[in-house]
């Protein structure tokens, strides 16, 4: 079961018209109030005229309700749902380059194997790996690789969908 | 039919029923101006783009139809940002068309380029950069639809030059005019809730049936929903007193026995206090602005709240209501009246609120609006000037004001009897609003007399539009209450900054307002003594072939009362010094 990242973190899934400027409109509603967007992922849905924006925002619940109402007022916003981490499935992709001198490479590969990650690229003293999983699992791998010397990390931000019913109603 | 973007844009405005546009041409918008020569649309050439925006607002406020302004790119677009923001705050339907550099030049710091959609994103209900000529008819229809439905507001269309210039192949399109269904289908995320929820309406009626000390708190939404008659019916049926906010003045007649006038920071004692002490606050199209509530944790402490508003984001934004109702104010009021009738038919009786009514009239008798007439030889009292202006103007005269002391005095002393006769900048508080807004109102309602009441500070911000008024033969009348100060700022410095007058003095004689007005083609008079006031106003009212400016020399020490000092609760109304209890 996924644990919430942070008590003030909220995950919003915003369905929008796929038009230029929509992301700026959504982002500026948060910026105007000084709320930091923790992570953001945007991509078209199965219907190419629509995009889904997944926003993780660091804000108290009460002001968030007001922001959500303001988001609803944006003409290009079609639907907003707040995803409770306990009631949704989440994934994030991470690419990570870590120092991997000849003596350390196998340790790193072993760790990577335990996390079911992949090797994307191998250099003389470095290795680039990828992993997609729940964001907290990515944190774990990142922390474990820290002592080897991380050179670069690129994460996509989380994407999420509501959990499905598991029993027939 | 083959056409080009510029011609299509003007034709689309015609199709939307636009009769008048306010604007000023320039490089990027030139191709849009060319077809205006053949169009039946009247174009009013302003002297500054801010004027075009405020005129469009005044036009919209007086007619209920969307105001339209057309200006060029860059500096013209930035000049109209203030009216956009003003219209956004006061929910005024407006469509602004700005020129933009050619699509391929956007982002290159081209001549007169500005990121107009970026700059205006936060001050418009919606805006669009039109990428292709073929999008013009649909986006114009969308703009008018969005501006005028739901909670009204300004919409901006940014039009790159290449898609409107007939010499550019990018401007070619086949004319079409989208149907209502096509417009709705193109806006899947825009579905304003119009009909109030029946269960909530029922709850509201029930609550009204139980209230002992009810007050109706009527806001600008009443006027937007054209619900003045229904409001009156509800008030009379339930015997409930009504306060009308700064944005709602005229929505309920000031001479009606149930009318308590304006609440808020400079509201009259009775309006403020009855809201404070009511047990049911029926908020209709109002938004609990900080100038109304004063210190929030002390506002209307015993009141249950019914809050009806077309914008769901207003419900619970400031005060959490017991009964929130999203929808059009008129339909909601009609629904509440129907429910009340049903309850009455079933034998429920409206509560006896005689005690409450007599408490309220006690306040009215004890604390009417008041001022002291000037000593012989002294400067004019602004309140006296306003009483005279009101008395000598036709009942349905439209009055516009700027922002500051003169605005508050106008709202207090002009006795409003009709909706849509009061035009001012409420939310944004834009100095310089009066003159262009009055011009726009007169264009929209040429049958009505239109006065602008302005301060000397405000007048200096947009006076140049009187040149527009003279040239276009728009005979507005302007009363400048010249107290030689930024009066409201002076009042705060006197009361809260130990009379340390920092940068508020303007001089009564510089500029010479009479010469200035005459230079702009107006009839102008200076009025200095009380006995000159009436005759000067009568003379101004008799002129109908050009604008008139009356400069009234008023007493700079006069302050607006009552007043709830900023940061205090509405229990602390400072009344006129003559009404204070002897200590």
Question: What do these coordinates show?
Answer:
The complex is a heterodimer of chains A (169) and B (583). Chain A folds into two domains: 9-83, ACT domain (Alpha-Beta Plaits, 2-Layer Sandwich); 90-161, Alpha-Beta Plaits, CATH 3.30.70. The longest helix of chain A has 13 residues, at 61-73. Chain A contains four helices and nine strands; from the N terminus they run βαββαββαββαββ. Chain A is elongated and about 55 Å long. The model of chain A has no long low-confidence stretch (mean pLDDT 91). With 169 residues, chain A is of the alpha+beta class. Chain A has helices spanning 22-32, 61-73, 105-114, 135-145; strands at residues 9-17, 36-44, 50-58, 77-83, 88-99, 118-122, 126-133, 150-155, 159-162. In chain A, strands 5, 6, 7, 8 and 9 form a five-stranded antiparallel β-sheet that branches. In chain A, strands 2-3-1-4 form a four-stranded antiparallel β-sheet, with helices on one face. Chain B is globular and about 80 Å long. With 583 residues, chain B is of the alpha/beta class. Chain B is built from 23 helices and 20 strands. Chain B has three domains: 2-186, Rossmann fold (3-Layer(aba) Sandwich); 198-366, Rossmann fold (3-Layer(aba) Sandwich); 382-553, Thiamin diphosphate (ThDP)-binding fold, Pyr/PP domains (Rossmann fold). Chain B starts with a strand and ends in a 30-residue tail after the last strand. The relative contact order of chain B is 0.11. In chain B, the strands form four sheets. Chain B has a six-stranded parallel β-sheet with strand order 3-2-4-5-7-6, with helices on both faces. Chain B has a six-stranded parallel β-sheet with strand order 11-10-9-12-13-14, with helices on both faces. The chains are: A alpha+beta (169), B alpha/beta (583).
Brief descriptors of the model:
heterodimer, A: about 170 residues, alpha+beta, Alpha-Beta Plaits, five-stranded antiparallel sheet, about 25% helix, elongated, B: about 575 residues, alpha/beta, Rossmann fold, 3 domains, six-stranded parallel sheet, 20 strands, about 15% strand, globular
């Amino acid at each position: 079961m996924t644990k919430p990242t942070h008590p003030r973190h909220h995950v919003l899934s915003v369905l929008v018209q796929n038009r230029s400027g929509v992301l700026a409109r959504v982002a500026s509603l948060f910026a105007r109030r000084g709320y930091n967007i923790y992570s953001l992922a945007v991509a078209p849905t199965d219907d190419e005229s629509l995009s889904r924006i997944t926003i993780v925002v660091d804000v108290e619940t009460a002001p968030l309700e007001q922001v959500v109402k303001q988001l609803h007022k944006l003409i290009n916003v079609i639907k907003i749902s707040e995803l409770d981490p306990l009631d949704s499935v989440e994934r994030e992709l991470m690419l990570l380059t870590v120092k991997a001198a000849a003596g350390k490479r196998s340790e790193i590969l072993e760790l990577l194997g335990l996390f079911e990650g992949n090797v994307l690229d191998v250099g003389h003293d470095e290795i680039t790996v990828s992993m997609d999983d729940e964001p907290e699992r990515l944190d774990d791998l990142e922390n474990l690789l820290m002592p080897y010397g991380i050179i670069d990390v690129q994460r996509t931000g989380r994407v999420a969908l509501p959990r499905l019913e598991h029993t027939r109603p | 039919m083959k056409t080009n973007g510029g011609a299509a844009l003007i034709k689309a405005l015609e199709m939307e029923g636009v009769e008048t546009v306010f604007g000023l041409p320039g490089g990027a918008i030139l191709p849009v101006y060319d077809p205006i020569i053949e169009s039946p649309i009247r174009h009013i050439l302003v002297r500054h783009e801010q004027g075009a925006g405020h005129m469009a607002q005044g036009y919209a406020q007086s007619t209920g139809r969307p105001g339209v302004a057309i200006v060029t790119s860059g500096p013209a677009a930035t000049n109209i940002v203030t009216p956009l923001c003003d219209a956004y705050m006061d929910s005024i339907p407006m469509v602004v068309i700005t020129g933009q550099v050619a699509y391929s030049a956007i982002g290159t710091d081209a001549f007169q380029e500005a990121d107009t959609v970026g700059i205006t994103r936060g001050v418009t209900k919606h805006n669009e950069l039109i990428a292709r000529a073929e999008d013009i008819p649909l986006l114009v229809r969308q703009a008018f639809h969005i501006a005028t439905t739901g909670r009204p507001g300004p919409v901006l269309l940014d039009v790159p030059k290449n898609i409107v210039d007939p010499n550019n192949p990018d401007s070619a399109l086949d004319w079409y005019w989208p149907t209502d269904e096509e417009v709705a289908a193109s806006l899947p995320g825009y579905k304003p809730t119009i009909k109030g929820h029946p269960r909530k309406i029922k709850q509201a009626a029930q609550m009204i049936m139980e209230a002992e000390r009810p007050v109706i708190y009527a806001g600008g939404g009443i006027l937007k929903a054209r619900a003045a008659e229904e409001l009156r019916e509800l008030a009379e049926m339930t015997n409930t007193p009504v306060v009308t906010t700064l944005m709602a003045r005229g929505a309920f007649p000031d001479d009606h026995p149930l009318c308590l006038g304006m609440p808020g920071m400079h509201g009259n004692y009775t309006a403020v206090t009855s809201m404070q002490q009511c047990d049911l606050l029926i908020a209709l199209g109002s938004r609990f602005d900080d100038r109304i509530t004063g210190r929030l944790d002390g506002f209307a402490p015993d009141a249950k709240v019914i809050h009806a508003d077309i914008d769901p984001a207003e419900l619970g934004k400031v005060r959490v209501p017991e009964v929130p109702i999203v929808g059009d104010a008129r339909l909601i009021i009609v629904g509440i009246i129907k429910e009340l009738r049903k309850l009455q038919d079933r034998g429920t009786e409206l509560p006896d609120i005689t005690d409450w009514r007599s408490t309220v009239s006690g306040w009215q008798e004890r604390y009417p609006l008041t001022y002291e007439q000037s000593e012989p030889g002294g400067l004019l009292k602004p309140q006296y000037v306003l009483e005279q202006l009101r008395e000598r103007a036709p009942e349905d005269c439209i009055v516009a004001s700027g922002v500051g002391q003169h605005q508050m005095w106008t709202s207090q002393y002009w006795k409003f009897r009709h909706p849509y006769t009061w035009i001012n900048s409420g939310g944004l508080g834009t100095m310089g609003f009066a003159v262009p807004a009055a011009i726009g109102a007169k264009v929209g309602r040429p049958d009505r007399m239109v006065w602008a009441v302005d301060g000397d500070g405000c007048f200096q911000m947009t006076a140049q539009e009187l040149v527009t008024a003279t040239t276009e033969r728009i005979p507005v009348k302007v009363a400048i209450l010249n107290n030689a100060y930024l009066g409201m700022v002076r009042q705060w410095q006197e009361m809260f900054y130990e009379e340390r007058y920092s940068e508020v003095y303007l001089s009564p004689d510089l500029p010479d307002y009479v010469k200035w007005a005459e230079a702009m083609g107006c009839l102008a008079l200076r009025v200095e003594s009380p006995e000159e006031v009436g005759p000067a106003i009568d003379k101004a009212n008799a002129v109908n072939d050009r604008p008139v400016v009356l400069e009234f020399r008023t007493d700079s020490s006069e302050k607006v009362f009552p007043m709830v000092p900023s940061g205090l609760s509405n229990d602390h109304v400072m009344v006129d010094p003559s009404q204070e209890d002897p200590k």
